[in-house]
From TrEMBL:
NCBIfam families attached to this UniProt entry: leuA_bact, PRK00915.1-3, PRK00915.1-4
EC top class, as a word: transferase
Protein name, per record: 2-isopropylmalate synthase
Keywords, alphabetical: Acyltransferase, Amino-acid biosynthesis, Branched-chain amino acid biosynthesis, Cytoplasm, Leucine biosynthesis, Manganese, Metal-binding, Transferase
Organism (species): Gluconacetobacter diazotrophicus (Acetobacter diazotrophicus)
Region (Regulatory domain): 403-524
Enzyme Commission number(s) of this protein: 2.3.3.13
GN (gene name): leuA
Function: Catalyzes the condensation of the acetyl group of acetyl-CoA with 3-methyl-2-oxobutanoate (2-ketoisovalerate) to form 3-carboxy-3-hydroxy-4-methylpentanoate (2-isopropylmalate).
Amino acid sequence: MTIDHPSFGRIDNDRVIIFDTTLRDGEQSPGFSMNLAEKLRMAEALAELGVDVIEAGFPVASKGDFDSVHQIASHIRAPVICALARSGGRNDIASAGEAIRPAARGRIHNFISTSPLHMKYKLRMEPETVLELITAGNQAARQFTDDVEWSAEDGSRTDPDFLCRCVEAAIKAGATTINIPDTVGYATPEDMARIFADLLARVPGADTVIFSAHNHNDLGLGVANTIASLSAGARQIECTINGIGERAGNAALEEIVMALRTRQDVLPYSTGIKTQNLLRTSRMLATITGFDVQPNKAIVGRNAFAHESGIHQDGVLKNAATYEIMTPESVGWTRSSLVLGKHSGRAAFRDKLKAMGYGEMDEAHLNDAFARFKDLADRKKVVYDEDLVALVDDEARDHARIRFVSLDIEAGSRRPARADLALEVDGEARSATVTGQGPVDAAFNAVREIFPHEATLQLYSVGAVTEGSDAQARTTVRLEEDGKLVDGQGADSDTLVSAVRAYVHALNKLLVKRTRAEPEAMTA
């Protein structure tokens, strides 16, 4: 079976469309935030990865969201650029249509809740009103683009007969992709397979559209539910890098793609993903958001191809296939013997970063990172790969308005600690000398003196990047302001410097959060 689609042409039945929502659903994760420059960098990485659709944001949410979608639509040419809108939102469809106007291929993704629970308590609408809005929303979206997607929010908990009526209405009104989300991560694989099989069998015109699965991970079943959806007829999957997203997150792109690639015997589907870019894209997202991937994360966690058990090590040495079902190189891991030290030059430093899965850094960030590496190499006996990851991740973040310059601390048990801090704020050099109950308190007081704000410190956590008394410290700082949470990270061989870097990173993210509004029914 083949389907003719306005953006992709004729699509074979074994082709799976990868719809990435890292920049929309992913950014709704508590503590996550990206500014325009960071979103553009991430969109470029997603395009290089080979995703088919980038959901770039929710334009009506704020001017910042609109600008992000518009700029991505203007600069990213290969993937379809998608904007989210509520089916019944007063200005949603028009805002989304204007935001994607520069795109080579643009999509409007409109949604409305369809479950009894959501219709009664959130929408406070009767089913017939919801059906009317589905028709109106999709017809309005078709005025801007031929590529229209409709989602049944809380679709997995929707009455099957009513869901069929909703999907039929959306198709008749011009939707070309139908998405059935497991919005709250409640479904099992059997549930999702039944839903898609039922819709394909019962809804008139179902064979003319692409069905899509968007599974949240509240019960840890996001990837399993997505694979079950594919087996039942869905041909688009909505996912995020590293599985980020609301609450427990979304189905992880890297896990789904490698499951399809590794298990062709039972999952005979193809994607356009360049899998060797998976690790690089994962690391870029972790760098931008300040949220590290857990070590045991499938595919991109640092332990994904590590073997400590003697039996496992022996087997891998004899034949890697004994305990590795895919090669590390297939997802971007490399085994490099290049060791860096204080005599290493810029070329070796750049090559090492590429071998570790990092893409090209701009010259300014590369220069700053190299300078910090040389300083670190002078102070440490051994510079580990983990040291480089911490250092480069810290330097590569886009410190939009506030940048760390220098810190001097005087502290002891007989007098209050004193911090001499220098920051750059909007390009202007500023400094302050402030005391505190201890060196960290003094340093954070100095930040507040230079850049006054009302955010409160919710978390301060310090860990060592590697072993040894000369190890770099990696610090996490969480700030809260008006219910908005942001996490920042910093790394340095000086624990206090790493703390200030983390605080500054969090503060920059908070400044981005301040510009965002959240219309009702954000999730899709």
